[in-house]
């Protein structure tokens, strides 16, 4: 029902804009906590638009982190998004 309402009442251009913003979002000079919170918000808001696999979302999350944090995730062998979040104690 929710998907039907969104399809009917949410303009397609809004969906495109939201996805574009998510794809361009990087950590930059934000703290890990701020980055994770905003990434999670994008993930939730885009979930009805995009039915990506968890591995794709995890990849998107990691490649936009600062290099030192990305290296830490790989060193710990993190393969699940929830474990990424736990690493940052959020």
Notable features of this structure?
90 residues; mainly alpha
Question: How would you sum up this structure, described in words?
Answer:
The mean pLDDT is 77. Helix 2 runs antiparallel to helix 3 (32-46). This protein is elongated. The protein contains 6 helices and no strands. 8% of the residues are buried. The protein is 70% helix and 0% strand. The protein has one domain. By secondary structure, the chain is mainly alpha-helical.
**Number of domain modules:** 1
- Output the helix-strand order: HHHHHH
Number of helices: 6
The rounded Rg comes to: 14 Å
Overall average residue pLDDT: 77
Number of extended strands: 0
**What sort of overall outline do the alpha carbons produce when their principal axes are compared?**
elongated
* Proportion of residues in extended strands: under 5%
**Low-confidence blocks of residues:** none
End-to-end gap: 32 Å
Helix/strand-derived category reads mainly alpha
- Report the major sheet: none
Query: Percentage of helical residues?
Result: over 70%
Write the layout of secondary structure elements.
Layout: H1 2-9, H2 12-24, H3 32-46, H4 54-63, H5 67-76, H6 81-87
Helix pairs in contact: 2-3
Quick description:
With 90 residues, this protein is an all-alpha fold. Helices cover 70% and strands 0% of the residues. It has helices at 2-9, 12-24, 32-46, 54-63, 67-76, 81-87.
């Amino acid at each position: 029902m929710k998907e039907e309402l969104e399809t009917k009442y949410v303009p397609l251009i809004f969906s495109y804009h939201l996805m574009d913003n998510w794809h361009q979002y990087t950590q930059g000079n934000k703290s890990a906590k701020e980055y994770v919170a905003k990434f999670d918000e994008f993930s939730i808001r885009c979930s009805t638009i995009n039915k990506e696999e968890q591995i794709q979302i995890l990849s998107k999350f990691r490649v936009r982190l600062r290099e030192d944090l990305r290296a830490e995730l790989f060193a710990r062998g993190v393969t699940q998004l929830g474990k990424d979040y736990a690493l940052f104690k959020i």
